[in-house]
Design goal:
The protein is 32% helix and 23% strand. The protein is of the alpha/beta class. Strand 5 and strand 6 form a beta hairpin. Helix 1 runs parallel beside helix 10. The longest helix has 25 residues.
């Protein structure tokens, strides 16, 4: 009986640790090499900690409306940032331990250290004490992730000028906060710090916030941030930054000067491909420094695979995990390919966003005029019952086939609800198929049913056109 394949994995983020567990489930011997905490950026300095903090701000907003809902509080809610961070760290720590337990359960070896490819089957690991060891494997998966780019204009010190990692520690609640970048991360931090009491300004180079999202959804977020006194400066950029006695002075491209007490820099991610031996092995990189892979997640070097942010596809934790499973399957001999046709995503602003598929703009760029169904939370019974009527569901369907091309939601539980539309797309369902499915009442999911019905102008709780 042949011995099991040995797979070495560089990185234990959502791509690496998931690949490790799947490969072990499939009978491989697996060694994971990670120089930081298990779970990677997503678990330790991204997805989970940001949501843990935002959940507190969301609760605080609900408590501020308690009186109108019939709940009398003895005093107004007061945020305690230090305790929020303690809880956030406790949540993260528990999940990190959970990953360690899973790796142990499946017999995955975890080596704490920094790995570098020596050749296509060998990884040299520098341990925390400086000693070195080597891991020989039949195949390698690179899952080194991404990091915030180093921008000389913004000398990050973790207090006055922060990346997302420092901002999640809430070193203070600055009276005036400038967020550079109005993408997903920037808008989430705007929601967080505005909720905590900062006067927030967001500068975005593109013409609107969340430029990759459907324009109607982006407009809702802009409106809701403005309600929270967030100033939005779109179509502009920061050209220089200077610390002064009055605060941090930033000059914009149009000549305006902003003075703030702290800056959060949120301008994208950089693939972690430096210093891991790729050039020694001959692994090919793309124009943006990403590792090039095929649909099996294999690089140009046979037996060397890459997954997650480092391949520069959709930089999402769940995409990294899906890629990790595909790579693991292929390394043990099961032919699998990665499919990006249906990739749901959540943005945890207040209110949150859920989306899957194409935006209206992307569909029209293909020369297709989609059929569109919309339903607002303001017409939804459950939204009124819980006292939160801000929200919109937008469904995009093909005008001839009625197949679902995209779904875009903003409002309570949007990131959870979008999976109903994702399932419809995965199964190649038509909009009328979802519209015809009975939905429980009263639920937020009814908004999806009504939006799917509205694709044909048949939503019950909308005053549509009469024939």
């Amino acid at each position: 009986m042949p011995s099991p394949k040995h797979i070495a994995i560089l990185g234990a983020g959502p791509g690496g640790y998931v690949a490790a567990i799947r490969a072990a489930q499939l009978g491989a011997k697996v060694t994971v090499i990670e120089n930081r905490a298990l779970g990677g950026v997503c678990l330790n300095w991204g997805c989970i900690p940001s949501k843990a903090l935002l959940s507190v701000v969301e609760l605080g907003e609900k408590l501020k409306k308690a009186h109108e809902l019939g709940l009398q509080l003895s005093s107004p809610p007061v945020f305690v940032p230090a305790q929020m961070v303690v809880r956030k760290n406790r949540v993260v720590g528990g999940l990190v331990k959970g990953i360690a337990t899973l790796l142990k359960h499946w017999g995955v070896s975890h080596v704490q250290g920094t790995g570098r490819l020596v050749n296509d089957r060998t990884v040299r690991v520098t341990l925390p004490d400086g000693a070195e060891t080597s891991v020989q494997a039949d195949g390698i998966i690179i899952a080194t992730g991404s990091s915030s780019p180093a921008l000389p204009m913004f000398p990050v010190d973790g207090y006055d000028i922060m990346t997302s990692q420092e901002a999640l520690e809430i070193p203070r609640i600055p009276e005036r906060l400038l967020i550079v970048g109005g993408g997903v991360e920037g808008c989430e931090f705007a929601s967080l710090y505005a909720g905590l009491g900062s006067r927030v300004t967001v500068v975005e180079m593109m013409a609107r916030l969340l430029p990759l999202e459907d324009e109607e959804i982006s407009a809702v977020i802009e409106r809701e941030l403005k309600k929270r006194q967030v100033r939005i400066i779109a179509g502009n950029s920061v050209k220089s930054v200077e610390k002064t006695d009055a605060g941090i002075s930033s000059e914009l491209a149009d000549g305006e000067r902003l003075v703030c007490d702290a800056i959060v820099v949120s301008v994208g991610r950089r693939c972690n491909t430096k210093g891991i031996g790729l050039e020694d092995v001959g692994v090919k990189l793309g124009d943006k420094g990403e590792i090039e892979v095929d649909d099996r997640m294999e690089t140009n070097v046979p037996g060397v695979y890459a997954v997650g942010d480092v391949v520069g596809k959709a930089m999402l934790a769940h995409v990294a995990s899906a890629q990790g499973k595909v790579a693991a399957d292929n390394l043990v001999g099961n032919a699998k390919i990665m499919n990006y046709d249906v990739v749901p995503a959540g943005i945890f602003t207040l209110p949150e966003i859920g989306r899957v598929g194409l935006t209206e703009e992307q569909i029209r760029e293909q020369g297709i005029v989609p059929n569109i169904g919309r339903f607002r939370y303001s017409a939804l019974g459950k939204a009124h019952a819980v006292g939160d009527t801000v929200g919109l569901v937008k469904i995009l369907a093909h005008p001839q086939t009625d197949r679902v091309l995209g779904a875009h939601l903003v409002g309570t539980h949007a990131a959870d609800l979008v999976h109903e539309a994702a399932m419809a797309m995965q199964l190649h369902a038509r909009a009328r198929d979802v519209a015809g499915m009975i939905h429980a009442h009263p639920t937020h999911a009814e908004a999806l049913m009504e939006a799917f019905e509205d694709v044909e102008g048949m939503a019950i709780h909308l005053a549509g056109k009469r024939s």
